[in-house]
């Protein structure tokens, strides 16, 4: 009877992984494309965090969206899923650390995660807990893909299965 359970569990993980893969692809793709539409604003948003020097902020703000879109395309295709999930997890940890840093320093900014960020007007409060919780969900999705990279409708299945034959 235990032989019958193993394939079912594998199938469930494959679908859960597919959902995680497509969720991350959608989030990264949308976030990256919105930022690419205004790279100057993306650089200004990075500068607001006061983590990198101002002259580097524009470069960082200009590079991150292209990385996000590249990761999204690889996730959509399901190619190099584990490696892409590791890169995505690293980005989520970086984003969470940046948000915690801003919060700890008492700054009040919009994260700019999905487009233009900025200083909030006086009296406005930013829900950093929501931003961190959201990114933790994305980090968990990436962790699921790191552990179980084999997903449905992924190029990895064809590439890896061909090598195993």
UniProtKB/TrEMBL annotation:
Swiss-Prot/TrEMBL keywords: Membrane, Transmembrane, Transmembrane helix
Compartments it resides in: Membrane
Key word Transmembrane helix present: yes
Iron-sulfur among keywords: no
Membrane topology of the entry: Multi-pass membrane protein
Pfam families named in the record: MauE
Segments forming a coiled coil: none
Domain annotation Methylamine utilisation protein MauE: ranges: 15-146
Matches recorded under InterPro entries: Methylamine_util_MauE
Residue ranges crossing the lipid bilayer per the database entry: 12-37, 57-76, 83-104
Protein's recorded name: DoxX family membrane protein
Organism: Streptomyces katsurahamanus
């Amino acid at each position: 009877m235990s032989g019958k359970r193993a394939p079912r569990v594998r199938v469930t993980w494959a679908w859960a992984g597919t959902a995680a893969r497509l969720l991350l692809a959608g989030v990264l793709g949308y976030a990256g494309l919105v930022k690419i539409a205004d790279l100057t604003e993306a650089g200004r948003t990075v500068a607001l965090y006061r983590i990198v020097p101002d002259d580097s902020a524009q470069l960082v703000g200009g590079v991150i969206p292209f990385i996000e879109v590249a990761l999204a395309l690889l996730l959509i295709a399901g190619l190099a899923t584990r490696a892409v999930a590791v890169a995505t997890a690293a980005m989520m940890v970086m984003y969470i650390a940046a948000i915690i840093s801003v919060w700890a320093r008492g700054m009040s900014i919009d994260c700019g995660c999905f487009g233009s960020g900025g200083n909030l007007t006086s009296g406005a409060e930013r829900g950093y807990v929501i931003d961190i919780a959201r990114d933790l969900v994305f980090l968990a999705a990436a962790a699921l893909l790191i552990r179980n990279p084999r997903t449905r409708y992924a190029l990895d299945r064809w590439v890896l299965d061909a090598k195993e034959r």
